[in-house]
Amino acid sequence: ALMVAQTSILSTFVFIAFGELFLSVNWAVVTDILLYVVTPGRQSTAIALQILVSHLLGDAGSPYLIGTISNAIQAKNAHSFQWNFWSMQYSFIVCAFVGVFGGGFFLMTSFYIEEDRKEAERR
Question: What does the UniProt entry say about where the protein is found (predicted)?
Answer without folding.
Answer: Membrane
